[in-house]
Every structure is written in structure tokens, then in C-alpha cells.
Amino acid sequence: QTGKVTFTSGTTGTPKGICLSHAAIDRVAGSLLDASAGSARDRHLCILPLATLLENISGIDVPILAGATACIPSLREVGLTGSSQLDIGLTIGAILRFRATTIVTVPQILAAMVAVLSPGAVRQTDLRLVAVGGAPLAPGILRKARQLGLPVRQGYGLSECSSVVCLNRIDDDRPGSVGRPLPHARVEIAPDGEVLVGCAVCEGVLGGSEGDMPTLWPTGDLGHFDADGYLYLTGRKKNVFITSFGRNVSPEWIECELAAEPGIAQAAVFGEARPWNTAVIVPAMETGAGGKAFDPTRIALAVQRVNERLPDYARVGRWLLADAPFTPANDLSTPNGRLRRERIAEAYRDRLDHTYDCEVSLVS
């Protein structure tokens, strides 16, 4: 039954070959065509490698179903070299040159676009949909993209379920969520908060033992639905740590709240077996008379505001300043923007340990 084998990124080990059927791919492509309101007038520009399942389906199968145009230049023409080298000027130039109406991208590339685009620049493009997935999207980046006029819609999916599962539609969007499940997908929340996905589940793993695949695939992601059926992701099940008070904490939840503050670009939160949580924070740089600078007081106030809206066990007791942003270049994030937590913890181990030298609770 296998029609395509797609390999996972291998960021946590040896890449796995996920076996997908043509029927599953067709169901996902049909749902995406409906959710994106695609038509023959579209010009989709592939700016991600076609080895990426998201681009493979969105950039080839969906345009074929719509009778639309797929623009597939070389990666170098759209500014990509290797897995993480990006010339965002070439990316934006390609969007203009190919008169793209739709693109799919990852948070890292969207953040670069937001950093260089000026107000009004988006009006020079034909873009009607910028779909973002592959990693959590910082609220601050989404907010800035919307202010610039970029038609960004966040989605969610996984290779084992033939790519996209949820997507915010053009006319049905709830910022902060990853949208509602697509027509083909069945999504449930397990008692422990894990997101379970049915329909379009893979046939198996290349080289794995034969056997029936689960009806509902355990994604490893934690999340919840709101009253209107929009899915919100709160972290990875494997990243949950337990404080010395026995409370389970999902660090992505706190990091998302921190990154929503204007003064904070990135944050990594730790607290395993500790009485309070400590954050390693990358400040959002501001341009002033003396060049780029940041204000520690602004960060402290941002942390205070976040703590005021978090329960006591999730609050940040102390924070320390990162030496540099978490990027693929320093191996502290993946190319699509996911934090490499173990590497960050190792890089800042001494300073993190120092924050607990006197273990007296700092969180009211």
C-alpha cells in the first residue's frame, strides 16, 4: 500500500522512513485544497525543499488538484543553502518575481521575513496565504507579521499522519491556535493531554516489524481544544519536567508566554527537580541612538507580567541572559526553529546551577 516514503528530520536520532499510501496523501491534499480556498488562479512558490513532506504535498499535489501553477526554482534561487543558511533577500525577491499567491514556510524563515520587510512592502506582492508549520510559532512573530499585512495562517501536522492535520483558514482564523482539524482528520485529546490523530495514518516505518498501525496516532504533543474546536498546542510530552514540589510543567507553555512579550525574542525554561523555574532569555534587540541595545529592566518587567498570568508552579523564579540567540548555526535550535533543550542546558549548566545555589523560593 506504500506510495511514498518520507523521512523524518532525524533531530532526535536516526531518520525514520515513514510509509504513506497514495490514498492518505490524496485525502490530505483534498483537505488542504478546501482549507486554503485554492483555485486555478494560484501560483504556489516552493521555498522549502521538496523532500519536506509539507512542501511536497502543498507545492505539488494541491496545485495539481486545483489546476494551478507550481513554481519550483532551485533552492539557491529562493535563498536556501544547505539545511539552515538563508538569504532572505533572495526569498522575498523570488516571491515578487514569480508573483506567488501562496507559500508554505517554517517559523525561522517567517521571522527573517518579518525582520526585513517594511510597512507597505507586502502590498507589492500577490500573496494571499502564507501557511506556517513545522515548529511552534512565537506569538510576537505572528503579531508582527499581521501588522505588516502578511496573510499568515498557522497549521499543524506530522509525517506519520501524512502531513497537515489542522490549519487556520483564510476566513476562519483564531491566532494562537493551530486551527480546527481538516475535514479528513480525527483529532482527540488523551486523558494525559496528548494529542491523538486518526485518518491518513502511515502504513508503517521502513524496516520496522509488520503489524496493525494504531487507529489514533500518539503524536507526543500536548494540547487542548477550546469551546469552538480550535486546537492549541502546549508542548511536547517528552519535554515535561517535574519540579521538586511534584508539579508537572510543560516548558513550551511558559516559553510561549515569555516570547509573546515585546522585549523577549526567545526563551528556554528549565526546572527539573528544582523549587522554581529558571529561564534563559534572548532579548529582542532595539535600535537606539547608540545602535542595537536592550534594557534589562524591560526584560524583568516582561517576566513579571508573565508571572502574573501564570499559576505559581509555572512562574519564572529567576532568569539569565543568553549569550546569543538560539540558532542552527550554534546548534541550539533546529533549522525549523525548535529548541535543542539538552544542548542549551549544557551550554548554560554552570549559570543555571548558580541560580539554585540558595534554594529559597523566589516566586510569590
How does this model look, in words?
With 364 residues, the chain is α+β, with helices and mostly antiparallel strands. It is built from 9 helices and 23 strands. The protein has helices at residues 22-35, 53-66, 88-97, 107-116, 139-148, 251-259, 296-308, 341-347, 349-354, and strands at 4-7, 17-20, 43-45, 69-71, 80-81, 85-86, 102-105, 129-132, 152-158, 163-167, 180-181, 186-189, 194-198, 204-205, 217-225, 231-236, 241-242, 248-249, 264-270, 277-283, 286-288, 291-293, 316-321. A 5-stranded mixed sheet has the order 7-8-9-10-11, with helices on both faces. Helix 1 (22-35) crosses helix 2. It is globular and about 65 Å long.
* Approximate shape: globular
Looking at the chains present, what oligomeric state does this protein adopt? single chain
| Strand percent estimate | 25-35%
Query: Roughly how many Å is the radius of gyration?
Result: 21 Å
> pLDDT under 50 segments (min length 5)?
287-291
Largest sheet strand order = 7-8-9-10-11
Q: Determine the mean pLDDT.
A: 89
Which secondary-structure class do the elements indicate? alpha+beta
Proportion of residues in helical segments: 25-40%
Please count the helical segments.
9
- End-to-end Cα distance: 57 Å
How many β-strand runs? 23
Largest sheet: 5 strands, mixed
